[in-house]
Structure formats: structure tokens, C-alpha cells
Amino acid sequence: xxxxxxxxxxxxxxxxxxxxxxxxxxxxxxxxxxxxxxxxxxxxxxxxxxxxxxxxxxxxxxxxxxxxxxxxxxxxxxxxxxxxxxxxxxxxxxxxxxxxxxxxxxxxxxxxxxxxxxxxxxxxxxxxxxxxxxxxxxxxxxxxxxxxxxxxxxxxxxxxxxxxxxxxxxxxxxxxxxxxxxxxxxxxxxxxxxxxxxxxxxxxxxxxxxxxxxxxxxxxxxxxxxxxxxxxxxxxxxxxxxxxxxxxxxxxxxxxxxxxxxxxxxxxxxxxxxxxxxxxxxxxxxxxxxxxxxxxxxxxxxxxxxxxxxxxxxxxxxxxxxxxxxxxxxxxxxxxxxxxxxxxxxxxxxxxxxxxxxxxxxxxxxxxxxxxxxxxxxxxxxxxxxxxxxxxxxxxxxxxxxxxxxxxxxxxxxxxxxxxxxxxxxxxxxxxxxxxxxxxxxxxxxxxxxxxxxxxxxxxxxxxxxxxxxxxxxx
Length: 475
Ligand SMILES: *Cc1c(COP(=O)(O)O)cnc(C)c1O
Hints:
This protein is α/β, with parallel strands linked by helices and 475 residues long.
């Protein structure tokens, strides 16, 4: 359909890109914003105007918008387009290892080392004693062996990569025996059967979903068997009429047949949580001491370090893994290495680790401490002195997250907020829109925040966010 005369008249009245660009130049919202972004936003705005004019009933009288009105529309568009996409976010969910919000926070020592190493040259692959090329992994190998008691260690980009690499090295073209109760899927489409297929290992499932016995593994072993694999049920639990084969039973079976045994621990822990009143989880040290040939785990789940996949175990298997050309495709960079070495060093002193590694500190935070933070947050909110805002304290549970300790419920105290005249859903959106975004959850008609995962300075930032939202709602 052709535009009517009236529509054509309106179209010609839209100011040109250059005119708007000129008009925007001295506005605060355009300060420091690259011209390309301004032009892109102006074009998008003008496109919107054109479609609006063309879609309206041509007989209806319309007025072309003024430059001033257009600049007002442009400002939020430019602000949004110019802002970095990866943003610091406030985690008020109480989920400590929140996969969507960046998993583990690094310890201060790790951050300092990361900055030091990545802003200067380093001996990343240089042997300072010999004065020639060295190994990238030497910085962490020794300390990983020291902490876990393993003969050898290796680090790749993430645990998914570690599992793929180990399967490819030890079982490509051969079978890997796994219990049907351990064929896990974790978030982000990591599924043991799929990784297995990509590695070239042939999956040999044994047992049933709820019960697998040693004789099931035994019956599956033949000359094609390359590996016995155990996968830790990190993000689910099988309860009721169940049976599973322990790692030590698998290790003796493997030894009898000369077949390596691998355990994918998923999260991986160096600290025995049962000493802190939490349920017992297998530690890496225990898996190593049991005699597993390879143990794989993540660097950024319960370990609280950078994203990485760590492999520890017997020298023979690890040597084969290190020689696999895939390692080059999965190798970690110097930032990971720097953060990982510093995090590992903290584990030399368990008392230091549980205080200085944020993931551990937050999981082990006593209820009294969380309650104190909740009280502080409520006090800050009360100080705003706006009758429309009501804040209440509620006893709830926090979670470890990251597919770790799925049944663990950590008693916590949340702050629930309601603003009269605003639904909880709208409040949640407003908090998510704030800079920095504040992520909480809705429960009935309250916006709920769990202080367990808040950092020191964030309580005041949250109070400012509520003040901002209240002011905006009033205007
Ligand atoms: C989390 C997890 C993985 C994947 O680890 P990433 O570090 O996220 O790659 C693999 N296996 C298990 C059992 C896990 O829990």
C-alpha cells in the first residue's frame, strides 16, 4: 500500500540523522559515547517513527515529534546500547554457586595475582632455573599433588573438558562401563552419554536406575573394556530401594582386570564439610586415596576458584592424558592459572581457606551472621522512611547451587519487601533493571532477598535501589 499524502508529509518531517546527532552532541547522555553507537540508536529510533507513521490510519491527524521529544526517547536507548553487556550483578538469591550469575567469586588473593600476572610478562611457559621453555602447568601441578595426595595432575578449561579428555585418552574405541544410576545430565546440555559419544568411547550401561551391583560391572567387562567410570550424583539423589558400588570396590575390580578406574566428582571438594556440621560429601583426597586412576572436578564449583577442569591421579594415566593433542584445544590461559594457583595455596591452611574463599565462607556462614545481615538490610530499608515500603524478616533456606549438594538446605533469614501500589512481579523487574541489577525471587506477593550471598557493600546499594524505585513510582 502506498503511503497517503498525509503520511508522506509526516515522513518528510522526521529530522535527519545528522540533525539529531548535532542536537544530541551536548547532552549528558551522549558524553563519551562513540559516534557509531549514537548513529545506530538514532537510525533505530527513526525506523520506529517511520513504522509508526505508516501503520497508523492515514486519515488521523498526527503531529511530527519535536527534536526535544526525540532526544528524550533517544537517551535511554543510548544508555542501554553503550553499557557493557557483561555487568556486575547483585546475587540476592541465596544460591551460593549460582551458575547463571557467575558461579564462584574469587578470593582476594586470587584476584590480586590475576591482575599481577596478566598485566605483566610472566614465566608462563619459561623454566627460570633452566633458562629455557617450560611447562604451563608446572605452576599448579605440584600444589595439586600436595593437597590431594595424587601422583600427578593436569588442568584444562572446565570439568566437561576434563571428562572428555580423559574418556578420549583412556577409552576411545573401547567401552567405558557406567552405572545406569549415574548417567547424569547437568545444566548446559552436558550429558554423560553425549560426552562419551563425542569422545569415541562406547558407553556400556550396567545395572538399573536405582540399583547397581558389583556383579553388573563384572559381567560387563570383556577385552574391549577400556575404563570403569563412576560419576558423582552431584545434582540429584536416588533414595529408597537403592544400591550403588563404592569407588573402592570398583578400584579393586579394575585392579583385578588391569582396567583403569575414573571418577568424575563434578564439584570436587578438598574440605570435609561434615566437620562443619554439614552432610558428608566425598573429597578429592578420599577419591585419590581409594586408588582411582583419574579423578576429575571443577575449579569453580565448591572449590571456589576460577573456571577450570582439574584431573588428578596415577602418573601412568595422567602421562597419557597430557600427551593427548586435545589438551592444546582445552588449555587454560594465564588468568585462570594465576587465579587457580592462588586459590590452591589457600587450601594449605584449611582455616584460612574457609574464611578467604568466598564460596566456602558463604556456605559455612552461620545463621547468626546471616540474621545480622538481614537485620542490617531491614534497618537500611526502614531508614528510607517511606510508608509504602514494608520489609519483613522470614526464615528460609539457602542452597549451595552449581549442581552441588542438591539436598543441602542451609537455614537462612531473608528480607521480604512489599511496596504498596506495586506488584511483586513489577518490583522484581525494577530491581533487575537497576544498575547494578539485583536478582532476588518472588514469594507470594513479596520480593525476597537472601543476605547469605550479598557482599559487604551491597546492603547499602540495595537500599539505594529501593529509594530509586520509590522515587520513580511517585513521579
Ligand atoms: C558440573 C559437572 C560437570 C561439568 O563441569 P564444568 O566445570 O561445569 O564443565 C561434569 N560432571 C559433573 C558430575 C558435574 O557436576
